[in-house]
C-alpha cells in the first residue's frame, strides 16, 4: 500500500513539473510558469500519465508477486443486473451536498480554475467519470479497504478508508474542512457499497453516478459550462477529478 501511495504521489508531482515546463516551452513560451501551471491540460496530462504508471505497477504487483489475476484479486465483480441501481445510488449520494447549506463553504477554490473555459470543463468532466473514479476505486476500495478490514473489521475499515479519501482532496478544495467533510461522507457511501457487495466494480458505478450527476447538473445550470458563476459550489465537490499545481 505504501509503495503504491508513494509512487502515485511522486509520479503526479514529477510529471506535473515536467509537463508544466514542456507546455510552457512549446505552447505558452511568453506566459509565466504560475499562469501555465493553472492550465487544465497540465493537470490532466500529468494525472493521466501518472495513473497509467500506477495501474501498471498495481498489475505487476498482483500478478508478478502474488501470482493472481488482477481483476479477480481486487474483487472486480461486475454487477451487470444491478448496474442501474448502483448508478442510482450514486445519483442519490449527491443529496449529501445539501449539507453545504448548513456548513461554511468556501466562496472559491483552486479547482474552479479547471472550469475556466467550456472545453476545459468538458475535458475535466470526461476524466471525472472515467479514469479518475476508476483509479481511486482501485486504490481505496480495491487495495486499502481489504487490508484495513482484515485488521480492524468492516465498520472501522469503512471509516479509515473514507478518511484519506477525503483528505487527498483537501488542497483541491482550498483545505476547506466543510468540503472535505462532504467528500469524506461520499467515501463512506462508496466504501460501504464495496463492503456490502464485495465488489470494487459496484463502488466504481456509484462513484461514476455521483460525479456524473454533478457534471450534468452543472452543465444544465451553466448553459454548457459557459456561465460557471451559476454553478455555485455543486460542481466543485467531485471525487476523482484532476488536481492542479498551486
What does this structure look like?
- There is one protein chain.
- 65% of the residues lie in helices and 0% in strands.
- The longest helix is centred in the first third of the chain and has 26 residues, at 40-65.
- It has ten helices and no strands.
- By secondary structure, it is an all-alpha fold.
- It is globular, with a radius of gyration of 18 Å.
- Helix 1 packs antiparallel against helix 3, helix 7 packs antiparallel against helix 8 (154-167) and helix 8 (154-167) runs antiparallel to helix 9.
Shape: globular
**What's the gyration radius in Å?**
18 Å
CA-CA gap between termini: 27 Å
Question: Main sheet?
Answer: none
Number of helices: 10
Counting DSSP E segments of at least 2 residues, the number of strands comes to: 0
Regions with little confidence, pLDDT below 50 for 5+ residues = none
Keywords:
0% strand; 246 residues; 10 helices; globular; 65% helix
Quick structural gist:
By secondary structure, the protein is mostly helical.
Write the layout of secondary structure elements.
Blueprint: H1 2-26, H2 33-37, H3 40-65, H4 70-73, H5 83-93, H6 118-128, H7 131-152, H8 154-167, H9 177-197, H10 200-221
Amino acid at each position: 500500500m505504501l509503495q503504491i501511495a508513494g509512487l502515485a504521489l511522486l509520479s503526479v508531482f514529477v510529471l506535473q513539473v515536467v509537463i508544466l515546463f514542456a507546455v510552457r516551452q512549446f505552447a505558452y513560451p511568453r506566459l509565466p510558469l504560475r499562469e501555465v501551471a493553472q492550465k487544465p491540460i497540465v493537470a490532466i496530462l500529468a494525472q493521466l500519465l501518472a495513473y497509467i504508471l500506477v495501474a501498471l505497477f498495481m498489475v505487476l504487483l498482483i500478478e508478478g508477486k502474488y501470482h493472481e489475476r488482477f481483476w479477480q484479486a481486487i474483487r472486480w465483480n461486475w454487477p451487470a443486473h444491478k448496474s442501474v441501481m448502483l448508478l442510482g445510488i450514486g445519483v442519490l449520494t449527491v443529496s449529501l451536498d445539501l449539507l453545504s447549506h448548513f456548513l461554511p463553504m468556501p466562496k472559491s477554490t483552486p479547482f474552479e480554475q479547471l472550469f475556466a473555459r467550456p472545453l476545459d470543463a468538458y475535458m475535466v468532466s470526461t476524466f471525472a467519470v472515467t479514469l479518475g473514479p476508476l483509479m481511486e476505486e482501485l486504490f481505496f476500495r480495491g487495495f486499502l479497504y481489504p487490508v484495513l478490514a482484515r485488521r480492524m473489521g468492516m465498520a472501522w475499515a469503512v471509516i479509515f478508508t473514507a478518511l484519506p479519501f477525503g483528505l487527498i482532496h483537501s488542497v483541491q478544495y482550498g483545505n476547506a474542512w466543510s468540503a472535505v467533510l462532504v467528500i469524506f461522507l461520499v467515501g463512506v457511501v462508496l466504501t460501504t457499497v464495496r463492503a456490502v457487495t464485495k465488489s470494487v466494480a459496484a463502488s466504481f458505478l456509484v462513484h461514476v453516478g455521483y460525479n456524473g450527476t454533478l457534471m450534468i447538473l452543472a452543465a444544465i445550470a451553466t448553459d454548457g459550462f459557459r456561465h460557471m458563476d451559476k454553478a455555485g459550489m455543486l460542481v466543485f465537490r467531485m471525487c476523482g477529478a484532476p488536481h492542479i499545481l498551486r
